[in-house]
C-alpha cells in the first residue's frame, strides 16, 4: 500500500504549497462550483459562478427561489442545461434548510445527507465535505487515480472501491483536514502533469509508426 505521507512530501517538494486549493470565497460558492464543474472544465464552471454572482444568486435562498429558466441561462456554459440548474436549486434548498444543522453532524451523517441531494455524487459530496464543512475526506478523483497508478498501486475503477482501497493508507497517514486539502491540490497538479506526459508519449509513438 502506498505511503501517502511520503507521496505528499514528494509532491510538495515538486509543486510547492497549494493551500486551500478549491476556488471560491464562501462555503456556498464552493459547493455551487463543485456541482457546476461536474463533467466540465473549471473555466466553464467559473464563468457560470460569475454569472450567478452578478444576478445575485450566490445565496441559497435566492437561488432556491429563482426561476429555473433564468438559472438555466446563467449556467448554460457549464453544460447539461437540463440537469445542472435543477441540481443547483436542490443543493440551494438543502443548504437553506439543513446547512446550519449540518455543521453539528458527524462526518458519516453529513456525507449521507449530501448524497441524498439530487445530483450530488460521491466525489462532489467529498469535495463539499472537505472544502465547505472542513471534514476529513480524500477526493478519489481522476487526478488521484492517475498519480497512484503511475506509482504502481492497483487503483479500482469505481469511486466507492477506490475509497475503500485507500482507507487503510489514509488511516496510517492521519492527515489533518488542511493536509487533505493540500494533498488534493497537489494530486490535481501532478495529475495534470501526468496527463500531459502521457499525451506527449502517445503522440511520439504515433509519429514513429
Would you write up a description of this structure?
It contains eleven helices and no strands. The protein is mainly α. Helix 1 packs across helix 11, helix 5 packs across helix 6 and helix 7 packs across helix 8. The longest helix is centred in the last third of the chain and has 32 residues. The radius of gyration is 18 Å and the shape is globular. The termini are far apart.
Task: Write a brief structural summary.
By secondary structure, the chain is an all-alpha fold. Helix content is 69%, strand content 0%.
Describe this protein with a few key phrases:
single chain, 209 residues, mainly alpha, 69% helix, globular
List the helices and strands and how they pair.
Blueprint: H1 4-15, H2 27-36, H3 42-54, H4 60-65, H5 68-75, H6 83-102, H7 107-115, H8 122-131, H9 142-150, H10 159-173, H11 177-208
Helix pairs in contact: 1-11, 2-3, 2-6, 2-8, 5-6, 7-8, 9-11
Strand tally:
0
The backbone outline, from C-alpha atoms, is globular
Taken in chain order, the helices and strands follow as HHHHHHHHHHH
Query: Which runs of at least 5 residues are low in confidence (pLDDT < 50)?
Result: none
Q: How many H/I helices?
A: 11
Ends: how far apart? 37 Å
**Mean pLDDT, all residues:** 92
Please identify the structural class as seen in this structure.
mainly alpha
Radius of gyration from the CA trace?
18 Å
Relative strand content: under 5%
Helix content: 55-70%
Main sheet? none
Amino acid at each position: 500500500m502506498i505511503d501517502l505521507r511520503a507521496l505528499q512530501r514528494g509532491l510538495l517538494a515538486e509543486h510547492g504549497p497549494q493551500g486551500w486549493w478549491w476556488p471560491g470565497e464562501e462555503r456556498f460558492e464552493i459547493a455551487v462550483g463543485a456541482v457546476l464543474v461536474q463533467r466540465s472544465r473549471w473555466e466553464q464552471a467559473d464563468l457560470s459562478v460569475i454569472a450567478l454572482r452578478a444576478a445575485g444568486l450566490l445565496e441559497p435562498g435566492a437561488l432556491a427561489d429563482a426561476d429555473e429558466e433564468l438559472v438555466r441561462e446563467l449556467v448554460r456554459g457549464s453544460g447539461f442545461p437540463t440537469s445542472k440548474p435543477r441540481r443547483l436549486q436542490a443543493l440551494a434548498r438543502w443548504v437553506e434548510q439543513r446547512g446550519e444543522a449540518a455543521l453539528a453532524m458527524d462526518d458519516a451523517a453529513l456525507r449521507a445527507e449530501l448524497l441524498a441531494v439530487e445530483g450530488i455524487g460521491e466525489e462532489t459530496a467529498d469535495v463539499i465535505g472537505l472544502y465547505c464543512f472542513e471534514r476529513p475526506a480524500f477526493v478519489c478523483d481522476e487526478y488521484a487515480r492517475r498519480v497512484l497508478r503511475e506509482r504502481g498501486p492497483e487503483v479500482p475503477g469505481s469511486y466507492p472501491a477506490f475509497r475503500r482501497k485507500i482507507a487503510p493508507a489514509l488511516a496510517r497517514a492521519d492527515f489533518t483536514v488542511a493536509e487533505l486539502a493540500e494533498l488534493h491540490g497537489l494530486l490535481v497538479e501532478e495529475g495534470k502533469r501526468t496527463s500531459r506526459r502521457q499525451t506527449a508519449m502517445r503522440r511520439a509513438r504515433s509519429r514513429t509508426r
